[in-house]
Fold this protein.
Amino acid sequence: MDKSISNNLNLIKKGEILLVQGTVPKFLHLLQSGSLEILSAPQEYEGLDADIITSKSKRVGVIKEKTIISGLNIVFSGPSKKSIRAIEDSRVEKYPIKQGGLKQIINANPNLSISLLSHLFKILDSSLSDALKYIKLFENLCKINDNISLIFKSLSTNITSDKLQDKSEHLYKTFTSNGGELPPIFDAKFVISDNSAQLNKKYSFPSLPLETLIDIKQCKFIRKLLKLKSNTFLMIAKEDPSISESMYESLSENLIKVLDRIEAIQYEIENELTTLFGSENSWALYLTEGGGLSEWQKSGGLSPNFANNFSSLITKLISHCSVLFTENPEKVYPGFNQIKNYQLSNNIDQEEEKINRDNNKETSSKKQIGVERLYKNSFDQIMEFALIDKEFQRKFHKDITDFKNMQNPFSSDPDCRKKRQKIAKQYWEIFGQVYTRSQIESSSPPPIRLMMRFGFVDEELLEDSQISELHEIITHKEEVKIPIYFEDEFLNSIYTGKNNPSITEMGLSYKAFLREQEKYRKKEKKSSKIDINDENIKKTIYEIDHRLLTTVAVCSGSTATAFPILNKSVLRGKVSNLYISKKKLESIINSLKDIDYSVFYRETVVKLDEAREIIQTEIIPNFILLPSLGSKIMLWQELDGSNRKTRGRIVVPILCLGDIQKSLAHTFACFRWELNRTIKGAMWADPVEGGITGIYFDYVNFYKKNSKLSAETKNKITEKFKSLRTNRDRFADDYIMWVLYEKECVMRLNNVTREMFYRYIPFKEDIRAKLENMPAFSEIASKFKNIQNKTITGYERRFKKYVDETGNLPPKLQEFIDFLNQ
């Protein structure tokens, strides 16, 4: 660097920002000692506070000492495409950039321009090397993910999340159909082996190769020029300064392309790491807390040193990630420590288990014998309790026995399907008889309680350990604030008249259904000895025959394979991993309500002496835990009849597979859609008067003509809508993106739906405050504030006449104002 130029040596402390993306650099920087990192954030964050930009940035490069920092803006005069931050305390010389930028430097100081080119080429060369490291890490993570899926399919009986389950099924099918053979014993080397040929995969970054993005030939030519003798290249630079300028522009463009590619690879790496080591539905969670690794070890399918070697592999991964990423990977991905801690505790546990095994054997044996005695001959206990006709009982017993002996009881074969349907029909008739008898008897045997709560029928259809877990669960009592019912509790509420019977699948109320029945009344044979002339019993049997029977089939995940009786063919592993307690469901409901706080609010009329006011009131639906295992949550009805103050009904399988938060979010969207349609009536599709359904319906019909959407966005919407049949499903898909991603500043919606949702499905104030500084939200946030302030002011002025002597509003009105201020 030319010492005749005034310079200023600065100490840049660790974590201090030297250059912010989106700002025009005022200085040329020379790193004398220490190290700096190059950070890259999505363009939408440019213009925000420096801390926000860096918090949303990825590390895309590292600069070591004795380096001139340049190339991050093409000709020194434009805004920087990346940020620079100190990794450690560093010393940096600063040289003011004069007007004219690069041209001024080349003309005034050719020697400096040559140094700039040399250092820029060094940064580019280092970045290309870094890109290869990121790509290699991505490829290895993909291999590990796929190979763990294959081991899971080979050794596991436990069911994990839908996403992991489906992926394992698909990979295993592809692997075996291409002639792949899994080893009889898996060692840790298999986890990182390349099975791409058998999986029809190519382990590479899913985009154009890096060499097609940058001009490799031009870079090589520039390298040759820079290797010329200094005097020779200096003569060229002085003779034609445009050559240096062209070289600099070319290197800068290529550098930024490489850094952008590194940023893109990091997002793909994050997806793989989340699947492997994330806090929810990850392989690490399944292998540790889900008991997967323990099950694999007990199966005899792992080599003796698998766990230790696998833990060593995880340690190496942590080391690689620590070098490449800005944040400590162990803090971002808790699964890293879960694996390491599991292995540490497992080594200790093996010793303790050896000591305690004999001591615990006698106690657990006695406990198990006690549970086995309670559930011995469960089938006969249930039949006897329900007073089932002997001939009906004989036929049902034969069908259940045939089911047990079927090689593949859930085959799609028509005969198998007919057999399941026949058993299901018999089962629901027995279920109704059991419930009826339970209202007469003061107490019920344990198999009856398991049947009403979980769909249990026969102890031979489950593992002994599963029955023990189910028995343990029904002994626990829970208190929750949200109206959550077990199925038998909800049936009791129908029986006692606390709740009305549900609508039918065709939308008929109980009374309307009876009127229809009167028209086509037929005599039916009874298999029960119990008189069901009692109107309360009739209502409850109706509830079982219509709402319960249908929802258990739909919520199973597939009506083709739906089967209401709990059995080990589908219930694999620990029951506690799938059990949805009232507390757990309440917690997930509240977590979603904390995001979409207005989801259960609707317009109602409040009486104030002679006056009437229309306000928004929260009315939470009844949540019913179905006695079944399934993967779907379902909205059954948004209201009870036409009364706006009544609760809707949402059903949840008590043993739930898959991502319950995502499934519940989908159901909340359906609830919003149907409730708005019901309340708006014939105006539900009107873009002005129809509320969220009206404006969304208008969006679906006319998005191709919307000038706010780019051609690329319109094509994406078209492709998405092809896979989503109904407008309600399309709305629900966007709603999930809104409440699970957009609230975290992860952009998943287009600008039109984002504006729509911000207005009609607002986040709470704390989330809005976080979003409103972002370019994508700033304008719509400002509009929302104006509308909100105008609305609140209008209501406060209107409600002034209701203020009492102490200055307080009636509670209902104050709650409404508080709601508007959220």
